[in-house]
Amino acid sequence: MINVMQPTLGQEELNRIKEVFDSNWIGKGNLVTEFEKAYAAHIGSTTDRVLSTNCCSEGLFSSMHLCDIQPGDEVIVPTISFVGAGNAVCANRSKMVLCDVDQRTLNARARDIEKVITSKTKAILLLHYGGIPCDMDSIMTLANAYNLKVIEDCAAGVCSTYKGKALGTFGDIGMWSFDAMKILVCGDGAILHFKNPELREKADKWLYFGLEAKSGYENSVAQKWWEFDISCFGHRAIMNNVTAAMALEQLKKLPMFMEKRAVVHEMYNKGLESLAWLDLPLSMEENCNSSYYFYHIQTKNGKRDELARYLRERGIYTTYRYFPLHRVPYYGIGGDFPNADYVADNTLCLPIHQSLSSEDVERVIDTIKEFGKKYC
User: Fold this and answer.
1) Which of 48, 92, 262, 308 is the most exposed place for a label (fewest CB within 10 A)?
2) Average pLDDT over residues 79-104
């Protein structure tokens, strides 16, 4: 089966993990700090604005507390979003207000967001779909005009930029995921970026029980190092040296990963451009970069499901992400979202990862063309 997503791991990660095992300390330690520093440099920021956590979903949930979003406050979320975003808002007993998206990029636009702003709106929880940058100039102008917090879910945008600046560094909080299905993988883990160092300090306490002072080896000041106080009812949501070891080696390979994914993206563009029954991804704006996390096509003839089954029967796995939140019955949110409905019924994500061979990509292209000749 040709997979939609697949990690690329090697002996380098195993060797680094062995060093962790040999050290007899597999918890949070020096390698976590090293990774935070390296990732801060990767996104052009500083370590006093960057913090690791155990997963990107924790970042979504924690963002409600960190941005002081209260029960009853309204948070605008694109209906094409990861379910973790919806759960984060609703678990906080805040009101999730959905907005429509652009039909081709699947990203929310400033005009989609502004339509649903009310006097109770407190924040925008933005998704950069598949690492494709939203129009951050217009969105940040809108957010500033209404005094709204901006939380950027760029889980898939590990190398994405908007006008030369890393996604995730525009809003109050940004976050990237390193779970098993992402580009840079470490099993589970994430990095959070904060608008200011004070918010990062608040997050550091929140993500470790609200501790005001560390206990044990980390406390080199107190005479009774086992004593502590807390400032909030925080979580325990931290990375450890095992996951950080993997992440550090993966970060070194990231430029190579991007080169390979860009080649796959361009092969699809050239191989499928002649098919009049398909829409392909739009080109990036000048000085913007995608991470090539998804390669999504859109059928113009209503035969997306048939195409997906045809490919799967021939050993090619495809999917559609993300199922629109206004169609999730448990949320109980209806409304008119014509672009999102079109997207959900016609979009298909093709296999794209750095381990795909040229032969694999050609096989996907040829099978799609074969389907077109038979049924389109």
Assistant:
1) 48
2) 98
Q: DSSP 3-state helix, strand, coil percentages of the chain (rounded to 5)?
A: 40, 15, 45
Torsion from C-alpha of 103, 167, 158, 246, nearest 10 degrees: -140
Give 325-336 as a DSSP string: GGG-GGG-----
- For β-strands 173-177 and 190-194, DSSP reports them as antiparallel
Residue 215 pLDDT > 80, yes or no? no
Cis omega (within 30 of 0) for bond into 322: yes
Helix (H) or strand (E) holding 166: strand 165-166
Max distance between CA atoms of the chain, in angstroms, equals: 78
Give the rounded percent of residues in the chain with a pLDDT score beyond 90.
Answer: 94
Residues in the chain: 376
> Which structural domains are found in the chain, ordered by start?
11-250 (3.40.640.10), 253-375 (3.90.1150.10)
How confident is the model at residue 140, as a pLDDT? 98
Q: Which of 180, 136, 188, 184 is nearest to 159 (CA)?
A: 184
> Which amino acid is residue 131, in one-letter code?
G
Q: Which residue has the tokens 């909080």?
A: 173
Q: Scan for tokens 């019955």, then name that residue.
A: 329
pLDDT digits (tens, 9 = 90+) for 249-303: 999 999 999 999 999 999 999 999 999 999 999 999 889 999 999 999 999 999 9
Angstrom distance (rounded) from CA 109 to CA 117: 13
